[in-house]
Amino acid sequence: MTTTAPPSRVRPLPDADTPPGGSGGGTSRRRVIGRTPRAFYWMVVPALVLFAALHTVPALIGIFYSFTNYAGYGTWDIIGIGNYVALFQDDRVLRAYGFTFGVAIVATILVNVFSLLLALFLNAKIKFQSAFRGIFFIPYVLSILVVGYVFQYIFANSLPQIFSGIPLFRDNILANPDWAWLAIVTLTVWQGVAFSTILYIAGLQTIPQELYEASSIDGASTVRQFWAITFPLIGAFFTINMVLSMKNYLQVFDQIIPLTNGGPGTSTESITLLIFRGGFQGGEYAYQTTNAVVYLVVIILVSLVQFRILQRREVDF
Amino acid sequence: MTATRSLTVPATRTRRRRRATGDDTRKVNWWLTAVVAVLSLTVLIPLYFAVVTALKTPDQLAGTGFELPTAVTFENFVNAWNLTEFPRTLMNTAVIAVGAVVLTLLTNSMVSYAIARNMHKKFFKGVYFYVLTALFVPFPIIMLPVVQETAFLGIDNQVGLILLYTVYGLSLNVFIYTAFIRSIPIELEEAARTDGASTWRVFWQVIFPLLGPMNATVGILTCVWAWNDFLLPLVILSDPNARTLPLAQYVFQGQFNTDYTTAFASYLMAMAPLLLVYVFAQRWVISGVMRGSIK
């Protein structure tokens, strides 16, 4: 054993990148490990600079502009928290938040229910298992915008003819201000289920088969097995899926463009769509940046709350 | 000795998993198979719609859309090909996706390696958490300023998009990579170092090859993202000639929104490339994505 103990740890590493000076001794093991070869900095720093330049700097600029009256062109003045005050009194903004949260919550619940069920089915002993897995993952590799145009045709032309007896569908659900969101949820779920299912299947495969064998000897039903074994053991996957779904669907954008483009009126205008429109086309650059800052805070809060609640449930088990 | 043993670790792990599913001797559940088959229609029917509509002439459009084309026409594809300037659009998308994947794999793995091996140091730990915070920053908050910034820097083109995908993917990729790198025994590197290898050599010749499975995962996720993304190209690209596939559909839809048959041919052509790759690489893609989630 003693001979196989890595001798390299004791001897100084003959590393060309080690900063000069003081590396000659190397009698102390701590000192050798403690020194960071300069190469590690070269690996991180350029990427870090780029990251700061293209991610952090824009974010900070955005926060700065939220205190101005910049229109996206021309001159601007600092106006303090005026934008924030106006934002909370803006019906259009509040409606966008209401719509976005509605879609995100419904879609998150539906995606997770469907994908968990589907993962259980696809993980069970069924024929053509891998072929089916392949089919259900297809939506993930397709552009949601392009698929959205196909769905638009189905909602606007096919469903009214197939369900001509149901007023909601006969009159084209996309043109209905009260129910158009349902079409957007449908498309979101259609695509979202693909990825979540794969994550859940991955989670299911971490559960040892022996647990099921033991519990079925004890006479546990399939339903009981699910609540007593499966669900608690994939708790971490459930948490991740819920948090990721919610975060993703709060940014709903690609789905709306092909289906309703925000309409009818502004009834399906999401926060992202509003920021995009107001910021680029409406001369509300600073105002919509303010919206984005508030939106950032909201998303962080939602994610944290979700983590806390869901992880507490994990711990309870 | 230690080197060879640890080299086989990832391999045995995958083999064990495969055996767990392969040795399944339970009876085939035919009822469930039927249920799953019916459910799979939810995925297949929209695709069926896209195919049959693209093959119809405008006067065959009446009806629910389920009807098969009475006379198959490929003219729609020719029209869509020309109207969306398909070869150029496809090329633009491919350049961006391939560029983003290559640059992501090379740089993000490197950053993750440096972080994973120096986690005990304040600087690298700080970098780790700094990068991770980006996971929670929604794109709209940087959307407006980054458009100005890329325009100012003159990278409101494919190059800029490649950089942005590489940078914006960093937080998730560092998260995936570091967990994996920390499971690679450090003895491997030390063996190489005693042979006189520099940190760079250790990374490229020892670590990077061992990252194979993670590279596959990260590559797939990045490729699908960059290929299908709509909002980022929409706001960043200023030159219409740089248009990507999703953008072309958007512009196309705006200009010819009544010409359904040509539009559907165009949609199908936009979906086809990644769909074709997926059909052939299906098992590999799914297992790659699953591996990323198990870490």
TrEMBL record, chain A:
Topology of this chain in the membrane: Multi-pass membrane protein
Parts of the chain that traverse the membrane: 39-67, 96-122, 134-155, 179-204, 225-244, 292-310
GO cellular component, one term: plasma membrane
Source organism, top-level taxon: Bacteria
Residue span, ABC transmembrane type-1 domain: 97-306
Compartment list: Cell membrane
Keywords: Cell membrane, Membrane, Transmembrane, Transmembrane helix, Transport
Chain segments carrying region Disordered: 1-31
GO BP terms, alphabetized: transmembrane transport
Family statement drawn from the similarity comment of this UniProt entry: Belongs to the binding-protein-dependent transport system permease family.
Protein name: Carbohydrate ABC transporter membrane protein 1 (CUT1 family)
Record organism: Labedella gwakjiensis
UniProtKB/TrEMBL annotation, chain B:
Domain ABC transmembrane type-1 intervals: 90-281
GO cellular component, one term: plasma membrane
Xref: SUPFAM superfamilies: MetI-like (SSF161098)
InterPro entries membership: MetI-like (IPR000515), MetI-like_sf (IPR035906)
Membrane-protein topology: Multi-pass membrane protein
Transmembrane portions of the chain: 28-51, 94-115, 127-147, 159-181, 202-227, 260-281
Span list, region Disordered: 1-20
Primary location class: membrane
Domain of life assignment: Bacteria
A Gene Ontology BP annotation from the UniProt entry: transmembrane transport
Location in or out of the cell: Cell membrane
PROSITE patterns cross-referenced by the UniProt entry: ABC_TM1
Keywords: Cell membrane, Membrane, Transmembrane, Transmembrane helix, Transport
Family: Belongs to the binding-protein-dependent transport system permease family.
Protein name: Carbohydrate ABC transporter membrane protein 2 (CUT1 family)
Source organism of the structure: Labedella gwakjiensis
